[in-house]
């Protein structure tokens, strides 16, 4: 590990401590006593306020109890941060109050003029064409806080009252969703954030799941194969299409030189699956079951009827 990287890690290590000794640094970073002493001197030069304690117990005390850690980045790390922020700019709505563009501008002002020009030039050379959020999501921050506080959310979802225990927010195909367990319906599901109404954070209830139980429910949901099995033939472009849009309960299976998309569906996900398969165009062919083949052909016929 380079010295600059180690100093950053040491700043983070010390950020929540009131006191420490040389052995703490030596044990955690596998360095010698001499190196630990040199690092302490370097940390003081970087602004870490501390003083040495005399006596047999000895050690060092931090003057600031609530230390705001300063982290120093090299040129490649700075470029990588701005690269990531640019990639996220299309997320106009996030669980946070500030936009990624505003954060980028704030960081840019802290760079030297020459470095600013380098960052702006590199950003101008790269573009990202991802699907932006297509719906307003007024409850993103509330959902994030609910996950962090391990609390519940009461809301109206598609006209139905639900009491949800969220565990994860994620963005997919232009939509913000969240994974949650419904304590009233006793089922796990991925909910569209924009389809929530009258959403409020609720205190805990007796039948609330532990974090371990909640994660287990999510794993069971994502790997549930108890529904109707399906098998779909994919060509090369169909495989690429699937790999760009991975979904739970689906996977690629290779048999000889042939590739199939396999998985399962339930009555609740049936219509969604048909909509999803339409996006493959000529690059997928449903093999089984017959129910799915029939419903898919009926959907195609309905589309053709619009042009008759």
TrEMBL record:
Residue span(s) of domain HTH deoR-type: 3-58
Keywords for this protein: Transcription, Transcription regulation
InterPro entries: CBASS_pafABC_assoc_protein (IPR051534), DeoR_HTH (IPR001034), HTH_11 (IPR013196), WH-like_DNA-bd_sf (IPR036388), WH_DNA-bd_sf (IPR036390), WYL_dom (IPR026881)
Record bears the keyword Magnesium: no
PROSITE patterns in the cross-refs: HTH_DEOR_2 (PS51000)
One GO MF term attached to the UniProt entry: DNA-binding transcription factor activity
Domain of life of the native organism: Bacteria
Keyword Transcription regulation (UniProt): yes
Alphabetical list of PANTHER family matching this protein: PTHR34580, SLL5097 PROTEIN (PTHR34580:SF9)
Protein name: Transcriptional regulator
């Amino acid at each position: 590990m380079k010295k600059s990287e180690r100093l950053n890690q040491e700043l983070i290590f010390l950020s929540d401590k009131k006191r420490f000794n040389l052995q703490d640094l030596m044990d955690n970073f596998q360095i010698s006593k001499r190196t630990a002493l040199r690092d302490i001197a370097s940390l003081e030069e970087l602004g870490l306020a501390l003083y040495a304690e005399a006596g047999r117990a000895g050690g060092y005390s931090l003057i600031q109890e609530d230390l705001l850690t300063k982290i120093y980045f090299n040129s490649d790390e700075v470029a990588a941060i701005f690269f990531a922020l640019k990639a996220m700019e299309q997320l106009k709505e996030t669980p946070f109050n500030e936009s990624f563009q505003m954060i980028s501008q704030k960081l840019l002002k802290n760079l030297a003029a020459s470095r600013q020009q380098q960052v702006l030039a590199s950003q101008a050379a790269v573009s990202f064409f991802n699907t932006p959020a297509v719906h307003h999501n007024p409850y993103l921050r509330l959902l994030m806080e609910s996950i962090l506080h391990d609390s519940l959310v009461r809301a109206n979802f598609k006209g139905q009252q639900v009491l949800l225990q969220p565990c994860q927010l994620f963005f997919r195909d232009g939509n913000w969703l969240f994974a949650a367990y419904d304590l009233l319906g006793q089922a796990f599901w991925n909910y569209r954030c924009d389809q929530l109404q009258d959403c409020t954070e609720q205190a805990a209830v007796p039948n609330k799941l532990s974090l371990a139980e909640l994660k287990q429910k999510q794993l069971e949901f994502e790997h549930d194969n108890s529904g109707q099995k399906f098998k779909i033939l994919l060509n090369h472009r169909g495989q690429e299409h699937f790999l760009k849009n991975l979904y739970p309960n689906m996977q690629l299976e290779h048999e000889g030189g042939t590739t199939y998309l396999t998985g399962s569906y339930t009555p609740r996900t049936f219509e969604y699956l048909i909509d999803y398969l339409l996006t493959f165009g000529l690059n997928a062919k449903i093999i089984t079951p017959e129910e799915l083949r029939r419903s898919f052909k009926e959907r195609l016929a309905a589309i053709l009827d619009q042009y008759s």
